[in-house]
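Thread: quick sanity check before group meeting

JM: Hey all, I'm pulling together slides for Thursday and realized we never actually wrote out the predicted structure for the chain we discussed last week. Dropping the sequence here so it's in one place. If anyone has concerns about the input, flag it before I start.
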Amino acid sequence: MPHPSLRQALAADEFILAPGVFDMISAKVADGMGFKALYATGFGVTASHLGLPDAGIATYTDMVSRMGTIARGCTTPVIADADTGYGGLLNVRHAVRGYEDAGVTAIQIEDQEVPKKCGHTPGRKVIPAEEMALKIRVAVEARRSEDFLIIARTDSRTSLGLEEAIRRGKIFAEAGADVIFIESPESEAEMAEVGRQIKKPLFANMVEGGCTPIVPADRLHAMGYRIAIYPAVGFLTVAAALTKAYGQLKADGHSNNMGVNDAYSFARMCELMGFPDVWAFDKKWAEEAGNLPKAAE
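JM (edit): ok, ran it. Output follows.
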C-alpha cells in the first residue's frame, strides 16, 4: 500500500528532500537515514540494472520489477520514475496499477515522445499538452488509493521555452496531477517564476552538472517547491568511489592500503543486508534440529 505520509506532508506544507537510489545497497543505506522519501531514479536503475543509457530502452517490465524491489525493501516511501507511462493511455493505466501494486507511493509521468530521453540531455521532444492531460486523467482514475500520488512532468522548457512549460504545468494541474514537475529550468529566476504562476506543489530535480542550478531546500520551499530530488548524487558518488578503490587495487595488487574511512567494514555491510537475522534464525533452528531423535542405523 502507498504510504499516506507523503500526501500528509504535502498537505502540511512540509518540504520533502529525496535522495536518488538505484539499487538495493543505495536504497538500504538511504532508508536508514530518516529521509521522508526516496527517489528511485530511472537513469540510475537503467544504468545499474542494464548498463544502458536512460533513453527509452528499459521496458515497463524492467522498471516495475526493480522499482518494486526497492519499494518492498524499504520502510521509507518511494517516488518512482515511470518515464512516459510506457506508451498510450492503456499503458498508463497498466503502469499506474503495476507501480501501486509493487508498493511505490508516487509515480512520475512525463510528456515526452516515445522513446524518451533523460531530462538533462539534448534532443527531447514532447507530445501535445492535451494528449498528456489525458494521460494524467487516466492515471488519476487508475489509482486505487488516494495516497498514491501522480507527479506530472513536462520536458518542454528546453525546446519550447519557459512560458510553454508553465502553460503545460497549469493544464496538468487542472487534469488532476497532485504535483507538477517542470523539468530543466535554467536559472533560479525561472524556478521562482514557475512558483509564482503554478499554484500546486512543485517538484525540483537537482542534478549535479545538469541544466538547473542546485538550490538549497529553504529557498526552494519559499518558491513553492515541496519535493526536491537528488537523483544522481548516489550513483555519481559510487562511481567515483569505485574508480578510486579499483584503481588502487590494480596499482597495489592488494587492498591493504584502503583507509578505514574509505569503505564500509565487512561487518557493517553484513548488518546492512540483514545477516544478523539469518544468523539468529540459523542458531535457533540448529538447536531445534539438534534435539531431533537420531535416525536408526
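AS: nice. The domain at 5-231 is CATH 3.20.20.60 (TIM Barrel). The longest helix spans residues 233-252.
JM: adding both to the slides.
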